[in-house]
Amino acid sequence: MSKSFDVIVIGGGPGGYIAAIRAAQLGFNVACIDEWKNAKGGPALGGTCTNIGCIPSKALLQSSEHYDHAAHHFADHGIEVKGLGLDVAKMLARKDTVVKQNNDGIVYLFKKNKVTFFHGRGSFVAAKDGLYDIKVAGASEDTLSGKHVIVATGSNARALPGAPFDEENILSNDGALRIGAVPKKLGLIGSGVIGLEMGSVWRRLGADVTILEGLPTFLGAVDQQVAKEAHKAFVKQGLKIELGVKVGEIKSGKNGVSVAWTNAKGEAQTIDVDKLIVSIGRTANTLGLAPETVGLKLDERGAIVVDEECKTNLPNVWAVGDVVRGPMLAHKAEEEGVAVAERIAGQHGHVNFNTIPWVIYTNPEIAWVGQTEEQLKAAGRAYKAGTFPFMANGRARALGDTTGMVKMLADATTDEILGVHIVGPFASELIAECVVAMEFRASAEDIARICHAHPSLSEATKEAALAVDKRTLNF
Ligand code: FAD
Ligand code: NAI
């Protein structure tokens, strides 16, 4: 096997494996190195996203939502459920099967696209004569040589000082996805994306869930009208969310975890929980990469420094995904991977940061693209806002899920859509139309004049567009 490659990708998560496939499609001889190990020590391609992120969390969100529906909502449809039971081990096993299907899917894609895979840790060894030597340390050792290197080594969960993850009592997203039995009391630090998604999973399965959030504002980056609606729904479901707290000492013992904290009024509190999930953000991962051997520049937070084209300070060394600036999202990593492969081929790969959608897969789901009303106000931009509640949407009524709304923001003069914010059923799917509209720089009137199927949730998007011009038809 040749050990010389046109492109060497380090990391097989969504940034890396997609970059490898696109580079191979463009005719390059490509290697991808990934060190993730499955329970048997074998490779498990797909990175955080596939193994302990997007995929397993969505599998558990789906299973727990089915359970919640059976327990609380089937009766509304005239469906009686007697003797409802919960088999957490089976639920976790199903999640593991879904993960494995995705791992195997990437192995198949590598074979199909002739990407050569190396299982092990990749590190820079030297740069000479316009080539980079990369060592692979795995079951066996290899040294690869490549003209271009794409670093896609992802991120790791951030721990609280003095409370390292033991994945037994104090859990990162990894342990949070494999709690073997429903904890009676579950604590979470951080009411961001992971806090809300994992808090929802275990609450639906019966845990008493308390989330301690440092900031005084709930989901500060989200349009506040939407965030308030979501907050109301979560509290009604039984999630206890404490805002503006200061977390103090955390003691972990045989009987669980004790967390000292101060509430927003400055009052000292303690909460004892069986398990504690810490979800306070993630940090870029360059562990074992040996960036110093070739002088690859990192910033003060440990992220690889790149320009808007994902170029590092070294010629022909690129970096994408969670290990660089920007939102830590799988689809952002993928888009950067594709763009870099195309730039290496001399094409003009491009990622539009203004139209990267965000989704929080809770119930109600929260999804948005573009700017929030708060951002537009702060920028002094004149805008028009239109909202349409799912309560007035026929399909939502039929679903039995009328929480939330679609909110569209458009330029006051040109009517160009500047942002769309959705809280409600299938927001994750509805947002795609809005991303397309914004990519094509559509006006609200464009959406308002497009025929949407009836009855469908997407009619709420059309009606929100009509609302921008104050002419909803169904509300
Ligand atoms: P990663 O997926 O982290 O992959 C990096 C890979 O590189 C890993 O396999 C790692 O083992 C490997 N690696 C690292 N160093 C080396 C080395 N030196 N040599 C060889 N291999 C190495 N995003 C979404 O868009 N939607 C979601 O629903 C979503 N849900 C999430 C849920 C959770 C619980 C978490 C934690 C994250 C979630 N994310 C989600 C974020 C998403 O997982 C990340 O943004 C995405 O995985 C980043 O992709 P990446 O390729 O940059 O890095
Ligand atoms: P996050 O950045 O979404 O939320 C972290 C929260 O913790 C913030 O609200 C922050 O104010 C709070 N916090 C930070 N330090 C704290 C402290 N000391 N005490 C109390 N609160 C504190 O990070 P999270 O949830 O860990 O997720 C990491 C990233 O993973 C996300 O930002 C997102 O990029 C990605 N992700 C994406 C998902 C999706 O797209 N659906 C799902 C899950 C994760």
Detailed description of the structure:
The chain has 475 residues and is an alpha/beta fold. The protein folds into three domains: 3-157 and 283-351, FAD/NAD(P)-binding domain; 170-280, FAD/NAD(P)-binding domain, CATH 3.50.50; 355-468, FAD/NAD-linked reductase, C-terminal dimerisation domain (Enolase-like, domain 1). Helices cover 32% and strands 26% of the residues. It is built from 13 helices and 21 strands. The strands form five sheets. It has a five-stranded mixed beta barrel with strand order 1-2-3-4-5. β20 and β21 (417-424) form a beta hairpin. α3 (54-73) packs across α6. The chain is globular, with a radius of gyration of 24 Å. The mean pLDDT is 97. The structure holds flavin-adenine dinucleotide and 1,4-dihydronicotinamide adenine dinucleotide (NAI). The site of flavin-adenine dinucleotide (FAD) has 37 residues, from α1, β2, α2, α3 and β3.
- At the first level of CATH, what is the class of the largest domain? Alpha Beta
Question: What about the largest sheet?
Answer: 5 strands, mixed, barrel
Within the CATH hierarchy, at the fold level, what is the topology of the largest domain? FAD/NAD(P)-binding domain
Structural class: alpha/beta
Cα-to-Cα separation, first versus last residue = 66 Å
Mean pLDDT: 97
CATH architecture title of the largest domain = 3-Layer(bba) Sandwich
Tertiary shape:
globular
Number of domains: 3
Task: Report the count of strand segments.
Answer: 21
Beta-strand share of residues: 25-35%
* Alpha-carbon Rg, integer: 24 Å
Poorly predicted segments: none
**Helicity range:** 25-40%
- The CATH superfamily of the largest domain is FAD/NAD(P)-binding domain
Tell me which ligands are bound.
flavin-adenine dinucleotide, 1,4-dihydronicotinamide adenine dinucleotide
Order of strands across the widest beta sheet?
Answer: 1-2-3-4-5
The helix count comes to 13
